[in-house]
Amino acid sequence: MFSGSIVALITPMTATGDVDNDSLKRLVEYHIASGTSAIAAMGTTGESPTLSTEEHLEVVRLVLEYANGRIPVIGGCGSNNTRQAIRLSQTMQTMGVAAGLSVTPYYNKPSQAGLVAHYSAITQACDLPQILYNVPGRTGCDLLPETAGQLAELVPVIGIKEASGCLNRVRELKRCCGDDFLLFSGDDHLALDFVRLGGHGVISVTANVAAAEMATLFRAASSGDWSLASRMHEGLMPLHQQLFCDTNPIPVKWACAERGLINTSMPRLPLLPLATAEQEQVREALIKAELIGRG
How is this protein organized at the quaternary level (predicted)? Predict the structure, then answer.
């Protein structure tokens, strides 16, 4: 259903911190023109924890409207509140998203049995295809491969975005979940190796600012042109690294504004705009990736 370079879409903001609909429309057009495989809107890169439910759903609705069937849209529907995750999933199913991206409950730190109960409740409440999202460094909760294997037996659960930073997880997930279960890297710097080991693609932060490059990289990998894919991956490595010089999505929003893809780099509090010293680091990475000129 999904493969290649999927963007974990930022949510552009105005100078006052409101959602910038004009920039959002430009981003959707940019990704369609650049060959991005799908758009994942309102994940954690989209600052979902700081948007109201109404804003959250409106962003997904607008992305669907702007995409107009030209690119699949995945809607972030995760929450640390199981009832809220159900409500988001049910609403997004009626809106017409292709799948939901459901992060593990953050802060609560549920057990593995609690994770099974959480996702089971969601899939019992609606039929929306679900991509699990494991990012223990941000949630304090690690969805283990054996647990993913149990969840893979639930019909609506179709894959996982794995951002534990451990490449061994690819083999473990394939063993536990089967070959038909979709595996996406959540770490851009590991994504090519992730695919070499049997993954299906990446749900990418870097694709926000280097959409065509990431799409070309993963098309090359899927066609077996590992030489081209490796060269492109190495060329983007400084950018992969510098886009995490501060909390995501602070650096990537600044990079998108630097490229003229959005109007401002403003995140929403409690996040602050990128500091001047880090701006120079990200700018140098953009120059090395030939995404902007020097001077």
Answer: Homotetramer; dimer of dimers.
